[in-house]
What we know:
34% strand
Amino acid sequence: MATIYYTGCSLDGFIATPEHSLDWLMSRDIDGQADMGFDTFAPRVGACAMGATTWQWLLDHDPEGWTPKPTWVFTHRDFAESEQVRFTSSDVAQVHAEMVEAAGDKDVWLVGGGDLVGQFHEAGLLDEVWVQYAPVTLGAGAPVLPRHVELRLEEVSRNRDFMCGRYSVVR
């Protein structure tokens, strides 16, 4: 069982534009069934965590499309109740144990954003970072991981338009 940040980003290191748009990412060609593709990653996930901006993006763009896996949204905002989503403003270290228990023998997926993932790293709870690099630069936006994190490259793959990398966190 691992806690994994799995995300797409631009070549210049952003996961969303300054306006929180992912249009640049969704317009690219990728095969979910390929190595490091989402459809091959998703079955290994037992629980998810994300920040409020990521959750709001999902509500705005695909309200019916979220996974039925137990999900924690770290937020100070008010959202409509959801059967599968728990809203929390607690420290990530306190909530991580609940997420691991809910995941069983599967992984915990840190969906984003980068600042939340940085909090998991600072608590010593981040194990791997999987990044799907899109062939585009944004110039500004939400950084993939706005913290100093030492990583070791474990795997590289090409998935159509994307260069995919799997890294382990160096402790």
